[in-house]
Amino acid sequence: MNAEIIAVGTELLLGQIANTNGQYLSKELASLGVNVFRHTVVGDNESRMHEAVGEASERADIVILTGGLGPTQDDITKDVVADFTGRKLLVHEASAQKIRDYYDRTGRSMPASNMRQAHYAENSTVFVNQNGMACGMAVEEGGTHYILIPGPPREMKSMYKYDVEPYVSALAGSGRLVSSRVLRFYGIGESSLEEELQDLIEAQTNPTIAPLAGDGEVTLRLTASAATEDEAVQMIAGVEEQVLGRVGEHFYGYDDDSVFNHTVEVLKERAQTIASAESLTGGWFAKSVVDIPGASSVFQGSVTTYSKAAKERILGIDRKLLDQEGAVSAACAEAMAEKVKEKFSTDVGISFTGVAGPDRDEGKEPGLVWIGVSGPKGTISKQIHIAGTRDRVRFMALYEGCRLLWKEKVVENDNIQ
After folding, report:
1. Distance CA 220, CA 202 (A)
2. How far is CA 137 from each of CA 39, 118, 152, 359, rounded to the nearest angstrom?
3. Of 89, 92, 91, 83, whose CA–CA distance to 141 is shortest?
4. Strand pairing category for 218-226 and 299-304
5. Which pairing describes strands 348-354 and 274-278: parallel, antiparallel, or unpaired?
6. Which of 13, 34, 47, 231 could bridge across to 226 with cysteines, CB 3.0–4.6 Å?
């Protein structure tokens, strides 16, 4: 079966909120073997909603609409679908009672418009809202199933799991299951990755291979269609083995993994602690690591020493070094890494110094970055040049720093196999 998802709400078109519902639903439907061919976003406008529903009905077995089930006059999703399918709107008594009970408990007077949330189209399947007031529904007309669920993500996800998933599963019957795995790579560009895998990509049928460039990294989504989950997993594993046999040196994780999550895991495996000294990144490395659950077992602390005076006063870096070599230099990066490691008594120290832009500093061009790493086997520094905006320079410096921590021999631990 195939499906289309229509997200309803002018706020989506204005960019006031992101359409995360579409992403969630596509992933969940794929696990049921239902292909999502299109996403549509439409505002709270009756004629345009009619048009969107009509177009989707000509293409899809299942049309899922999210949003527009609330109590206000512009919440017209149920009205539009009822009109489109030639049905009357009725009141679902259980949902209506739930709404009345809520206002009784809170001691508030209920606006009459709130009863709109209890409406449903006659001869439809009603979905009771476990985390809100507006009920959802599913109605079939002309071979197409129209499924209406709330827009707020908490309500949408709950209704999907309680009611929509079983409903769609029954429709899909013995349809094939679709399973995906995302492989994450760093240190190789999208074009280079595709070149290495060109013959595999060109020959793909099932599983499929889809490259995607992200911020500072590249991902490959491997997707297989099979009768069972185990069969799909085995099919994906075979392709993954071929991929990693060619570009495995750049691979670092799966699915929702992140560069910073992987960095924390690497340090845990090595039984090492780390501290950071940051100049151009302004504490960004520390925050990114601390955002990872369990980071406290490896991360000890950080100092942000933005000026030369701060580097001298807080880290104890020799003023002569700063004057002669400059703050943006290999010598400064190495000294920062060594001093912060000493200050926090950690196994590893990492530092970031450079010119984020937009102006030159110390006569050096924006995008010049030095990263220092000090570990059990010594201290090294690496110079990199990053093109782009001020934030991109700082962000990519963090990625390069993480990569140094994974790969650089000075941070290896002989006691960890």
Report:
1. 14
2. 20, 10, 16, 58
3. 83
4. unpaired
5. parallel
6. 231
Helix (H) or strand (E) holding 81: helix 77-85
Nearest to 154 by CA among 33, 82, 66: 66
Specify burial of residue 105 (Cβ count, 10 A radius: 0-12, 13-18, 19+). Answer: exposed
Q: How confident is the model at residue 175 (pLDDT cuts 50, 70, 90)?
A: low
Segment 7-26 shows an average pLDDT of: 94
In 3D space, the residue among 35, 36, 33 whose CA is nearest the CA of residue 5 turns out to be 36
Yes or no: say if 136 and 157 are a contact pair by the CB < 8 Å rule: no
Q: How, if at all, do strands 136-141 and 125-127 pair?
A: antiparallel
Do residues 127 and 137 touch, judged by C-beta distance below 8 A? yes
Residue 64, classed as helix, strand or coil, is strand
Report the predicted TM-score, pTM, of the whole model to 2 decimal places.
Answer: 0.68
Q: How far apart are CA 175 and CA 226, in angstroms?
A: 9
3-class secondary structure, 292: coil
Query: Which residues lie closer than 8 Å to 103 by C-beta, 6 or more apart?
Result: 109, 110, 114
pLDDT score, position 176: 64
Three-state DSSP at 356 gives coil
List beta partners, residue 273.
Answer: none
Amino acid at 182: V
Contacts by 109-116, CB closer than 8 A, 24 or more apart: 111/71, 113/71, 113/72, 113/73, 114/71, 115/71, 115/91, 116/70, 116/71, 116/72, 116/75, 116/78
Q: Which residue has the tokens 């560009």?
A: 189
